[in-house]
Protein 1
Amino acid sequence: MKKQLVFATNNKHKMEEVGDILGDNFQLLSLKEINCTENIPETAYTLEGNALLKARYVFQKYGYDCFADDTGLEVFALNNAPGVYSARYAGKSKDPKANMQKVLKELANKSDYSARFRTVIALIIQGKEYMFEGTVQGKLIREERGIAGFGYDPIFVPEGYTQTFAEMGTEIKNIISHRAEAVNKLKQFLL
Ligand code: IMP
C-alpha cells in the first residue's frame, strides 16, 4: 500500500518535482488536498526553523505525517544573505528580478562571488521530527543568462558547469540541485 504523506506546499511545480523523485511508493497530498487553506506563518530566522514551523503546523492541526521544505540562496561574501529571506530580499512583492538586482548590487565591490543554494526538509512521522539538508555550491555571475527555472537561476552557475541553472534547463537542474539532494535523503530514510 502506498504511504500517505503531506507535502506542506501548494506549489504544483514543487509537488511534481518532489513526487517524481519519491516515486510510486508514496501518495503525496498537498495542503489544498487536506483542506488546509490558511497561510502557514513562516516567521523563523532560519531555514530549519521555517521548515519545522510548517511541518509542525500540519501535524498538530491536521494530524498527518508530513514534511515541509525551505530553501535559500547563501552568498559567502554577504554572510550567507539572503538566506531565509531569499524570496522577499528586495521587498514584499517577491519579484525575482529585483531580488537578483539587489544581490548583485550588494556584491558590487566584492571579489568573491561564491554562493550556494541550501534546502532543508523537516519531516514529522508519528510525532517524531527529522531534518534533511541538500546543497549545491556554485558562483553568481553579473549578467542574467537563460530563461528556465525560477528565482535566482539566471545568475547562478553550479560548480563543475559553465551554464547557469536557467540555461541548463530543469531536467539537468533537477538531478543536481539542492532540492534533489534533500529529497533523495528523505527518500532513503523513508524507504
Ligand atoms: P522556497 O523555500 O522553495 O519557497 O524558496 C524560497 C526562495 O528561494 C524562492 O522564492 C527563490 O527566490 C529562492 N529559490 C529557492 N529554490 C531556488 C532554485 O532552485 N533556484 C533559484 N532560486 C531558488
Note: Residues 66 and 189 are 14 Å apart (CA to CA).
Protein 2
Amino acid sequence: MDESERQFEDTIARHDRIEPRDWMPDGYRRTLVRQIAQHAHSEVIGMQPEGAWITRAPSLRRRQVLLAKVQDEAGHGLYLYSAAETLGVDRDDLEQQLMSGAQKYSSIFNYPTPSYADVGTIGWLVDGAAICNQVPLCRTSYGPYGRAMVRICKEESFHQRQGFELLMTMMGGTDEQRAMVQESVDRFWWPALMMFGPPDADSPNTARSMAWGIKRHTNDELRQRFVDMTVPQADALGVTLPDPELRWNEERGHHDFGQPDWDELKRVVSGDGPCNAERLEHRRRAHDEGEWVRAAARAAGEASR
Ligand code: 3HC
C-alpha cells in the first residue's frame, strides 16, 4: 500500500471526509458517480408524478405548497449534479446517460399518481423514506455529497410534513376522501419499501459501500428504521398499512413485516415499470424544449468573457 492509499484508508477509518483533491481508488470514484448520479436523476424525474397535480390542486394554498416542493426537488437535483461534477464527470453526459437509459433513477417514480391523495402519500411515505435514507448520507465519507445532503434533508422534512398534513386533512373529511387516502397508501406502501434497495443479501454494492463509508447503514437497516418510524404515523392518520405480517416484535424491539415483491423491483429497475417510458419521454421532451435556454446561457457566458 503506497502513501496515498494509506492516507485514504486512514481518512475512511477515522470517519473523516474525502475531498475532491484527495487521492481515491477508482472503484470508490465509480461507486460515488453511480450513486450520486442516480440520486440526482431521481430528484429530477421525481418532479413528474407530483408536478402533474400542480394545476389541479384543490386550493391556492395546496398549489403553492406543491409548487414549492417540486421546485425544491429540482434544486436537489442541481446540488447533486454539482456534487457529481467534483468527481470529474460532465453534467450533460450524466443527463444523456439518464435519457438513454444507461443510468437509473429510483423505482418509486415509475408508479402512476391517479389520485390527489397521492400528493400527500408521496410526501408522507416517499419523502419519509428519502429522509430515512438521506440523513445518514449527511455523514457519507465523500465531502461534497455529505454537504449537499445537509441542505437537502432540511427541505425533505418540510416535504414529509406537508404530505402528512395533507393526508390528515383528508382523513378528517368525507368517507370518500378517507377511501382515497387508503387506496393511495395501498398502492405506494410496498414500492416505498423498495426505495431502500434489494435485501442486503442480494445487494452487490452494500458491503463495499459500507467499508468505504459511502453508506453508513445497510439497505435492510434503513428499511427497518422506516417501518418502525411509519407505523405509529399510520396509526395517527387512521390508515392501515397493507401488510398482514406487520406487527410489533417485543423481543426484537422492532416491527416484523412482510417482504416486498423483489421480482417487481427488478422489473421496474430494468425499465418494465408502469411509467418508465412515460417518465423518460417527458424528460427527453423537456431537455429538447430547454435547448434555447442552454444556448442563451452559453452565449451569455461567451459574451461575458
Ligand atoms: N430504484 C432504482 N435502482 C435501484 C433501487 C431502486 N429502488 N434499489 C437498488 N437499485 C439499483 C442500485 O442502483 C444498484 O444499481 P447498479 O446496477 O448500478 O449497481 C442495484 O440496484 C443494486 O442495488 P444496491 O443496493 O447494491 O445498490 P446501492 O448500494 O447503490 O443501494 C440505494 C441502492 C439504497 C438506492 C443507494 O444507491 C442510495 O442510497 N442512493 C442515494 C439515495 C437515493 O438515490 N434515493 C432515491 C430516491 S431520491 C428521492 O426520493 C427524492 C425525494 O425528494 C423524494
Note: The longest strand covers residues 247-249.
Protein 3
Amino acid sequence: MIEEFPLFAGLGGQARAALEACLHTKVYPARVMVVSEGDDTRSLYLILDGRVKVFTSDEDGREALLCTQGPGEYFGEMSLFDEAPRSASVMTLERTRLAMLGRDDLLRCLQDHPGIALALISELTGRVRRLTEQVKSLSLQDVYGRLTRLLMTLAERHDGQLVIDPRPTHQQLASRIGASREMVTRILGDLARGGYVQMDSGRMVLAERFPRAW
Ligand code: CMP
C-alpha cells in the first residue's frame, strides 16, 4: 500500500509490512474537511487516491490556498512533530482514500529507520522554499505580476501551445495569489481582449509571453 510513497522508499519489505499494519484506511467523499486549522489532533495522513487542498482562512471565511496534493503525498506532519494545533485546514477536492498513521507509530518507525526522517526534512525544506517564493511574490509583485506568473507556472505545453487544463476558476486563481476574484476577472478579461488568453472548451490557452505590466 505504501510502496508508492517516496517517503518510505528506504524501507525493506518487513518494515513496510509492519508500518502498514498500523495504518487505518478511510474513504472520504468530495469536499469533506479532514483536518481543521487550530484542531488539537496528531496523525499523519497518506494520500492513496484522490486530491486534497491545503488552505488557511480568516473569520470571514476568506481562503488562501497553500497547495493541493495527490497520491503519494502526505499532510499532518507538522502538529505531529511540534505538538501545536493544526497549522492549516485540509479538504478533499474529490473522492479521496487516506491512510492515517498515529504519532506513536510514526515516531517508532523514525527511530528504527532514520532515512524517513531525512525524507521528511527534505519535504519540509521544499515547503519552506515554496513559501519563500510565495512571500517574495506577494511582497514584491503586484496582482497582475502574480497572476501572470501563476498562469505560466500552471501551464503545460500541448501540441506547441501553452495550456492550462482543466481551466481553474477565477476564485481558485484569486485564492492562490491573495487577490480578490473581481480583480482576477478584470485582468483576465483584459488579457482575453488583447488575445493573450483564450478560453477553449474547458481549457485556457496562453500566449507565449504576457505584457510586462497591466
Ligand atoms: P499540520 O499542521 O499537522 O496540519 C495541517 C497540514 O497542512 C500541515 O500539518 C502540513 O502537512 C500542511 N501544510 C501546512 N502549511 C503548509 C504549506 N505552506 N505548504 C504545504 N503544506 C502545508
Note: Residues 35, 54, 66-67, 75-79, 86-88, 90, 127, 131 surround adenosine-3',5'-cyclic-monophosphate (CB under 6 Å).
Protein 4
Amino acid sequence: MITEKHLKRFREVRTPFYFYDMDLLERTIEIVKKESARYGFNVHYAIKANANPVILKRIVSLGFGSDCVSGNEILRSLECGFPGHKIAFAGVGKSDNEILTGLKSDIFSFNVESLPELEVIDQLAGKEKKVARVALRINPNVEAFTHKYITTGIEESKFGINMWDLQPIIDFLGSAKNISLTGLHFHIGSQVKRFTPFKALCIKINEIQEWFNNRNIFPGHINVGGGLGIDYENPDVLPDFSGYFSLFDELLELRKGQQVHFELGRSLVGQAGSLITKVLYIKNGLQSDFVIVDAGMTDLIRPALYQAYHKIENLTSINTENSRYNIVGPICESTDSFGKFIELPETQRGDLLAIRSAGAYGEVMISNYNLRDKPGLVYSDKI
Ligand code: LLP
C-alpha cells in the first residue's frame, strides 16, 4: 500500500521510478510457500518476470528455486543465492555457451525443446565429462485463453515438442551417453486468468505420462510451468494460490515418488510493483484530454505491446471532480499510451500517478529507445 510516508519520499525522487512494496512481496511469497508446501510441491521462481537482485534475494530466502531462459539468468540466479540444483533452464534457442553455463552449474534440468538441442547438450556434456539432467518440454496443445503473444502451448507455437515428434527423441535418448531423462515439462502460456486451462493441462499430462509409461519410461518429475494470472483491475488482490495448487494436487495422476515442479513468475511479483510517474502537461484532445506523463513505453512496455490494462491512480490530486483522460508518454510512437478514457480526479501538471501491477515484466523489459534514462528504483522498506 502507498502511504503518506511513501508519498513524501516520492515527491523528492526523480521520476519515473519503480516502487516495490516489499511487505506485499513478502506476504505473497509466504502464501506461495505455505500453499505449495501443503502438497510437497517445488516452486521455481521464473526470474524473467523480475530479475532485480533485491527482489531475487527476498524470494530465494524462502527456499524457492529459479526458472531461467538464458545463461545470464542462470548467472544472476547463482549470484543471488539460488543453488544450481534448483535451477530449471528452458528456451528454444540455448546457445552452446549457455548450455555450458548450465552444465558447469550442475543445474536441476535443461528443459529441452527439440532433437537438435538434445544432440548438442549430449555432445557438450560429453566434453565436460558430465551427465546433463534433461526434462522434455512437451507441447500439450492446450489453449490458455490469454493474449496470443503469450500463448505457448498450442501446436503451431515454437515452444515445446509436439507429440508426433517424440519417437525419434526417445530413440536418441536410448543411445545418448551423457543425458539422463529426469522429467517432463509443460508451459501453456502466461496471464492465464481462469483455472480451466490448467485443468485441461492436467488431463493432457496424465495422457502423456501413459504414453511414456507404455514405452517403459518413468520420468521422476513433472514440471507444469507457470502462467497463473493476476487481477490487473484489482491491484491489491492476490491470486488464488490455494485453489491453484489444490487443483494440481487433485487432478495430476502422479507415479510413486514423482515430484511436481512449478515455474511461477508474474503471480509472485506482479502486484508488488508500481511505476510512479509525474504529469508533465495536460493537452487538449478530441474526445478526451491527454495527460502527458514522464514515463513511457521504454519504462513499461506491456500496454504498447500486449494492449495490456494497468490500473492508474492519481496519488496527489485533491480534486473531487473526475474527468476522463488519455494517458500517454513522451516517446515518438503512437502506441506509447498507458490507457484511453481513464477516469481520474481532475489532474494537473506535477501530479504523481501510479501505474499499478507493474512488478512483473515491467523493470525487466525496459529499453533505452530514444536514448531514455532508466527509471529509478524505490523500495518500501528503505523509506
Ligand atoms: N515457464 C516458462 C517456460 C515460461 O516461458 C514462462 C513465461 C514462465 C514459466 C512464467 O510465466 P508466468 O508465471 O510469469 O506467467 N512479457 C509477457 C509475459 C511473457 C511470459 C514468458 N514466459 C507479459 O508482460 O505479459
Note: The chain has two domains: 4-17+271-382, 22-270.
